[in-house]
């Protein structure tokens, strides 16, 4: 499914069909196993996941050890420090949460690019082994993706997608469901509004010529979203699958 991690940002920008996996556990050995399964990228969740910077660094090293998947990081926030640190650790792209306006999207882009295209500070302590280290080369090989997950972000999707240098947008389904009036992150009473929101984001990304991604609870859902017009999708998470597999084996063993 994947080619070279070095081509990841280019394939994302070209709106190629890309499938990833989500990691929330600080478990480099497990992450290394996942990185060799054939996913195009492994995204480490530094916002809600259970990793600190050493965990991010360990995960990026583990992903690179397999040499097939690109490492991404969902950073804690739209901040130059967090974004720069994730990229210096070797991430080939970042997913930036809670972006509500084009101005905020432009700030995220600037944190991902070295001058004169942005304001990223030069210090590729590890990323220079895999990305760059020439600033122009690094700028090309790093993807900047922002999340659409609030009512304000949804209202401003067209303007966000038109942001110069932005590579993609990414739906956070849990927050977006709540933003649309859901009582829980999976409230089906807002399903119609939710599906309309997804169609809006996918279409406005297509119009702007950038990638459109979404987090999915399973592979079948990911296949459906890709068929609907999303260009990349992430499948579940290591913690969710660990619990599901253990519960299934317990049921089987218990008769």
TrEMBL record:
The keyword Metal-binding applies. InterPro entries: Aldolase/citrate-lyase_domain (IPR005000), HpcH-HpaI_aldolase (IPR050251), Pyrv/PenolPyrv_kinase-like_dom (IPR015813), Pyrv_kinase-like_dom_sf (IPR040442). GO terms for molecular function: aldehyde-lyase activity; metal ion binding. Its EC number is 4.1.2.52. Residues 19-243 form the HpcH/HpaI aldolase/citrate lyase domain. Pfam families: HpcH_HpaI. One of its GO terms (cellular component) is cytoplasm. The keyword Transcription regulation does not apply. Keywords: Lyase, Metal-binding. SUPFAM superfamilies: Phosphoenolpyruvate/pyruvate domain (SSF51621). It is an enzyme of class 4 (lyase). Belongs to the HpcH/HpaI aldolase family. PANTHER family: 2-KETO-3-DEOXY-L-RHAMNONATE ALDOLASE (PTHR30502), PHOSPHOENOLPYRUVATE CARBOXYLASE FAMILY PROTEIN (PTHR30502:SF0). This is 4-hydroxy-2-oxoheptanedioate aldolase. It comes from Streptomyces iranensis.
């Amino acid at each position: 499914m994947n080619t070279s991690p070095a081509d990841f940002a280019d394939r994302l920008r070209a709106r190629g069909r890309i499938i990833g996996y989500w990691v929330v556990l600080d478990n480099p050995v497990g992450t290394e196993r996942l990185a060799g399964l054939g996913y195009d990228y492994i995204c480490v969740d530094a916002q809600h996941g259970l990793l600190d910077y050493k965990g991010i660094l360990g995960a990026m090293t583990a992903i690179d050890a397999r040499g097939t998947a690109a490492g991404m990081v969902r950073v804690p926030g739209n901040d130059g420090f967090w974004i720069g640190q994730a990229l210096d650790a070797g991430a080939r792209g970042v997913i930036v949460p809670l972006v509500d306006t084009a101005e905020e999207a432009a700030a995220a882009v600037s944190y991902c690019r070295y001058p004169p295209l942005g304001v990223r500070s030069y210090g590729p302590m590890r990323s220079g082994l895999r990305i760059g280290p020439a600033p122009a080369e690094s700028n090309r090989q790093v993807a900047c993706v922002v999340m659409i997950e609030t009512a304000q972000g949804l209202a401003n999707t067209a303007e966000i997608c038109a942001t110069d240098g932005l590579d993609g947008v990414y739906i956070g389904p849990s927050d977006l469901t709540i933003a649309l009036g859901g009582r829980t992150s999976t409230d089906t009473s807002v399903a119609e509004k939710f599906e309309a929101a997804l169609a809006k984001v996918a279409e406005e990304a297509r119009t702007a010529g950038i990638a459109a991604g979404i987090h999915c609870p399973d592979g079948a859902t990911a296949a459906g979203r890709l068929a609907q017009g999303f260009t990349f999708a992430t499948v579940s998470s290591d913690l969710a699958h660990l619990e599901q597999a253990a519960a299934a084996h317990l049921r089987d063993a218990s008769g």
